[in-house]
Design brief:
Number of domains: 3
CATH superfamily of the largest domain: Glycosidases
Number of helices: 17
CATH architecture of the largest domain: Alpha-Beta Barrel
Bound molecules: beta-D-glucopyranose
Strand content: 15-25%
Radius of gyration: 24 Å
Helix content: 25-40%
CATH class of the largest domain: Alpha Beta
CATH topology of the largest domain: TIM Barrel
Shape: globular
């Protein structure tokens, strides 16, 4: 039976589903022109449903010159024709909803493409109503405390424009002029941008580059109170006009600045957890998972009850190392990235599998970790099959290569000649289609895809405990094992994760509130016994276990 609109838009729906980020351009090419398209995503919806995905986040699909892969929009109200038509989008949304999958778009509000007619009008004519939609300067010296986002590509946030006879401000690339949020018409337009796509059935947005909308002299021009007001207005509009839709923030900032985007439940339902993400990897690097507990203890209490963190391992950008100390950054480079050319902007442009040296156990360990924490896990397309990357492509394109559906030509992505593909296929042997692809992994029990799918199934069938907001870290001294409890009304889930490259044993004292007769939901290479009121587990290298205990209150009458 297909889910109804009210199932899909039930309050807090996002707490129990797994999200899947995908670039339409690289997912599946339905018409053989070498470019992935919306109809291609629709064709693969059964794959996503079978994987256990409850929501997809589509990277920008609006008209764009693709100088920043769609984050440079030149028409906010049309599907890029290379991706298909409005009808294709409608069919995708309908097909997704019929399978219980929600669809998020990407709301890019900070900047537009310099090719956009708004900017073209503004630069040519000082009296144009669009002139005030952008920030201009005669000196290019204002807002000097605003951080440069891509310091390896741009040396200033101001670029001179001959036609305008002035400098214009851009937080990102020079071909992405920032909008001026002190102009009320910009607000109205961006709210309409959101409305337009929500009216076409989208279930919400990942909001791009959230902190930077407002600029004020003497500040770092990020996370200013006006930014929060804007997103509260957006959320209020969505709650009123499109109830049950959701927003997730991309705000790559320090802990207090990031937590502020929940704003007592008035702003974003989810915030991508940039401060936690590097710590997941670092725990493998130095086998000290305490760092994960520390960041969770610092960030979970600030989350309002009806909101949650959005955990991710990788995404379409570089793996950002902005939120770690210099020593941690050095550790990261030492452990995960010795490849020349892998560093970019403030991080590393590699996918999950190459970072973890193709070790499926490590991939499963970290995936199980983000699935086990209170909040919403976000998977990046292709990581479930261990796809690799291409460092020979420019900027971050190397982590956006075509999805590997089979070991056939073009990895089954497209029937076009290889030289016509929107991006070339991965060729690095351990990660290329011959070794990593959906069709083969689907047929092999024990493959990475099979293991990831099992994790999602278990999580979905215990939604009450995984969807609970409660979390209690367990002190395990210097152990390389991370342990936590996820209490819910009837159960307590025990999560144990061994970050070491060798087996480890732990003893966890059971709280008096549970019956000492556990049910193992899943364990990889682990064994356990209960002695008195102690739970003793032996975990294989990079092994983990999810174990369910019934609470005493909930014990059935014998
Ligand atoms: C997106 C990037 C993009 C940038 C500028 C980011 O936060 O994730 O891919 O280059 O915004 O739009």
């Amino acid at each position: 039976m297909s889910p109804t609109e009210s199932d899909l838009r039930a309050p807090d729906w996002f707490r129990t589903v797994v999200f899947y980020e995908l670039p339409v351009r690289s997912f599946y090419d339905s018409n053989g022109d070498g470019i992935g398209d919306l109809a291609g995503v629709t064709e693969k919806l059964d794959y996503l449903r079978d994987l256990g995905v409850g929501a997809i986040w589509l990277l920008p699909f609006y008209v764009s010159p693709w100088k920043d892969d769609g984050y440079d929009i030149s028409d906010h109200y049309r599907v890029d024709p290379r991706f298909g038509t409005m009808d294709d989008l409608a069919a995708l949304v309908e097909g997704a909803h019929a399978r219980g999958i929600r669809v998020l778009g990407d709301l890019v509000t900070n900047h537009i493409s310099d090719q956009h007619p708004w900017f073209q009008e503004a630069r040519k004519d000082r009296s144009s109503p669009y002139r005030s939609w952008f920030l201009w300067s005669d000196t290019g010296k204002e807002f000097s405390r605003a951080r440069l986002m891509f310091p390896d590509y741009e040396h200033s946030n101001w670029t001179w424009d001959d036609a305008a006879g002035q400098y214009y401000f851009h937080r990102f690339f020079a071909w992405q002029p920032d909008l001026n949020y002190d102009t009320p018409a910009v607000h109205a337009e961006m709210l309409n941008f959101a409305r337009f796509w929500l009216a076409r059935g989208l279930d919400g947005f990942r909001c791009d580059a959230v902190p930077y909308l407002y600029k004020r002299e003497g500040t770092k021009c990020q996370s200013l109170p006006e930014v929060h007001q804007f997103f509260q207005t957006l959320r209020a509009m969505m709650d009123a006009e499109f109830p049950g839709t959701a927003l997730v923030a991309e705000a790559n900032q320090s802990v207090p600045e990031t937590v502020a985007y929940f704003d007592q439940g008035k702003e974003f339902q989810m915030v991508l957890h940039f401060p936690a993400m590097p710590n997941f990897f670092l725990s493998i690097g130095d086998q000290n998972p305490k760092r994960v507990l520390d960041v969770l203890r610092a960030t979970l209490p600030g989350v309002p009850g009806d909101c949650g963190w959005a955990y991710f391992l990788r995404n379409h950008d570089e793996l950002s190392l902005e939120q770690v100390s210099d020593e941690e950054r050095a550790l990261f480079f030492r452990e995960f990235d010795s490849t020349p050319g892998a560093r970019i902007h403030n991080g590393i442009r590699r996918r999950l599998a190459p970072l973890l040296k193709g070790d499926d156990s490590s991939i499963v360990l970290l995936t199980a970790l983000i699935l086990g924490l209170p909040g919403s896990p976000y998977l990046y397309y292709g990581d479930e099959i261990g796809m690799g990357d291409r460092l020979d492509l420019t900027d971050r394109d190397g982590v956006r290569t075509p999805m590997q559906w089979s070991s056939g030509p073009n990895g089954g992505f497209s029937t076009a000649p290889p030289e016509e593909l929107t991006r070339p296929i991965v060729t690095d042997a351990p990660f290329a289609p011959a070794a990593r692809n959906v069709a083969d992994e689907d047929r092999q029990p024990g493959s990475l895809l099979w293991r990831v799918r099992t994790l999602l199934r278990i999580r979905a069938s215990h939604a009450a405990v995984f969807g609970s907001e409660r979390f209690e870290g367990i002190e395990l001294g210097d152990s390389p094992v991370l342990g936590f409890w996820r209490p819910s009304a009837e159960y307590r889930l025990l999560g144990l994760y061994n970050f070491a490259p060798e087996p480890a044993t732990v003893t966890v004292p059971l709280p008096p509130t549970v019956w000492a007769s556990p049910v193992e939901l899943l364990r990889t290479g682990s064994s356990s016994t209960v002695v008195g009121h102690d739970y003793m587990a032996r975990l294989d290298r990079r092994g983990f276990s999810w174990t369910l205990f019934l609470t005493r209150r909930a014990r059935p009458v014998p």
